[in-house]
């Protein structure tokens, strides 16, 4: 557990000093690729972190800004031959910037207080906001506001944010999924499904598809109607203490001893959920259970590939061409690259065409597209250019942030693309139809 003021000085020094400055990660880093500046590279950032840990420099505003210019995409970890744990360094570096308050201003404090410390700490608050947004959208007020031209009065940044507002689903996960779903075939496993926070409001249909697929292949599925955020948003934004509170809450709510697997279908959440033991290191009550928890967390593709996918009936499917965008926290964070392709290739009549630079970040990166819209926009353009060349009509990707980012980009460009989670395509193939909108 972190004690004292400096997160980087308290971090295990074997993590801090691991980088051997070889630079092999540089070509894989999207921010370095964009600027060609050493400070915007993994090697440059790690040097800054180490200098703070060694007490050679203070954490300054420039340091804080640099840590928030990093996408946290972890492409550098995949490339690194020395096994540098950039994920851990990155989380502690942002926590350092928050601890010394180098980025503080009143507006930022209010936004962080409202989102990280209030909204995402309690699902009921998130549901309330979701219901209000749902009403605003279903009554057509959003369209009226957009057509009225009133948005032109807003600063460019806020206009961009409004354009990214996701459509809230008519029903949340608990409205669609029973707390206990029996296995439709012979019961082989007992699993739990994490419905997420934003995912619960915007992609509750993906959660439903996940439960449906699991039940079909012999899992009894437990989906508690009340759940908590996984805490990845907090850990990635320097709120280490809040991330610990949420981790303890999740372990209590989903006792890992009771399940064969605890399933996540959101890459960003899954990547964080697998590291609760590090987050709760030194906790006398939770550390041991956190190790068991980490071993039980499975991404949905990973779990399906492990237990075996039943091929859906041929007659249920129509020919479709699909390309696959690899969410950073699935391919770099969890090293899951083959399993989603296995899921897609199990679907009859589905032609999978590979996407150039499929592992290059789309710019979503948690809330990066909100706090760094320009860089995120450049990455989105690059992704959409590759998608256009791939020539598929459907883009599959296993993370809600990527789904939204690519959906928004396709809409703005007027591209007639369908952007879906791979599990939705599998559920449709079992079911023999698309879900009604
Ligand atoms: S996490 Fe991504 S953006 Fe950050 S240093 Fe690594 S490769 Fe670059
Ligand atoms: S992070 Fe890894 S790849 Fe990058 S410079 Fe350091 S040792 Fe080399």
Explain this structure:
With 437 residues, the protein is of the alpha/beta class. Helices cover 52% and strands 8% of the residues. The protein contains 26 helices and nine strands. The chain has a five-stranded mixed beta sheet with strand order 1-3-2-4-5. Helix 25 (400-413) links the parallel strand 8 and strand 9. The mean pLDDT is 93. The chain binds iron/sulfur cluster (SF4) (2 copies). One iron/sulfur cluster (SF4) binds at residues 19-25, 42-43, 46, 76, 79-80, 82, 84.
Given the helix and strand composition, which structural class is it? alpha/beta
Our Rg estimate from Cα atoms comes to 21 Å
How many helices in DSSP terms? 26
The ligands found in this model are: iron/sulfur cluster
Instruction: Give the number of DSSP strands.
Output: 9
Average pLDDT level:
93
Largest sheet: 5 strands, mixed
What overall geometry do the principal axes of the alpha carbons give?
Answer: globular
How would you write the strand order of the largest sheet?
1-3-2-4-5
Strand content: 5-15%
Low-confidence stretches: none
Alpha carbon gap, first and last residue: 46 Å
Share of helix, binned: 40-55%
């Amino acid at each position: 557990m972190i004690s004292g003021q400096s997160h980087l000085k308290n971090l295990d020094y074997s993590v801090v000093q691991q980088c051997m400055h070889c630079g092999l990660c540089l070509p894989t880093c999207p921010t370095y690729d964009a600027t060609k500046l050493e400070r915007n590279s993994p090697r440059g950032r790690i040097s800054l972190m180490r200098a703070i840990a060694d007490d050679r420099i203070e954490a300054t505003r420039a340091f804080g800004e640099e840590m928030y210019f990093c996408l946290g995409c972890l492409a550098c970890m995949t490339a690194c031959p020395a096994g540098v744990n950039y994920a851990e360094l990155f989380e502690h570096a942002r926590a350092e910037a928050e601890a010394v308050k180098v980025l503080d201003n009143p507006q930022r404090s209010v936004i962080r207080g409202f989102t990280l410390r209030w909204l995402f700490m309690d699902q009921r608050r998130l549901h309330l906001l979701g219901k209000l947004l749902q009403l605003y959208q279903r009554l057509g007020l959003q369209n009226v506001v957009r057509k009225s031209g009133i948005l032109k009065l807003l600063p460019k940044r806020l206009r961009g944010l409004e354009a990214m507002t996701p459509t809230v689903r008519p029903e949340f996960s608990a409205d669609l999924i029973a707390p206990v779903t029996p296995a439709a075939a012979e019961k082989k496993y007992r699993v739990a499904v994490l419905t997420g926070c934003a995912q619960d409001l915007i992609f509750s249909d993906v959660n439903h598809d996940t439960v449906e697929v699991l039940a079909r292949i012999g899992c009894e599925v437990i989906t508690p109607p009340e759940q908590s955020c996984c805490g990845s948003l907090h850990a990635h934004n320097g709120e280490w203490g809040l991330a610990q509170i949420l981790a303890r809450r999740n372990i209590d709510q989903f006792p890992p001893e009771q399940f064969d697997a605890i399933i996540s279908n959101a890459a960003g959440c899954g990547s964080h959920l697998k590291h609760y033991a590090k987050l709760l290191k030194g906790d006398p009550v939770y550390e041991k259970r956190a190790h068991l928890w980490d071993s039980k967390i499975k991404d949905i593709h990973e779990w399906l590939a492990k237990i075996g996918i039943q091929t859906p009936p041929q007659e249920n499917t129509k020919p479709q061409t699909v390309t696959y965008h690899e969410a950073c926290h699935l391919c770099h964070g969890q090293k899951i690259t083959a399993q989603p392709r296995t899921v897609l290739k199990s679907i009859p009549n589905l032609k999978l065409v590979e996407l150039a630079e499929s592992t290059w970040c789309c710019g979503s990166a948690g809330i990066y597209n909100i706090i760094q819209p320009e860089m995120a926009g450049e990455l989105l353009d690059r992704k959409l250019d590759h998608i256009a060349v791939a020539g598929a009509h459907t883009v599959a990707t296993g993370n809600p942030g990527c789904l939204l980012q690519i959906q928004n980009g396709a809409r703005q460009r007027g591209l007639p693309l369908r952007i879906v989670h791979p599990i939705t395509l599998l559920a449709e193939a079992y079911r023999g139809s698309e879900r009604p909108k």
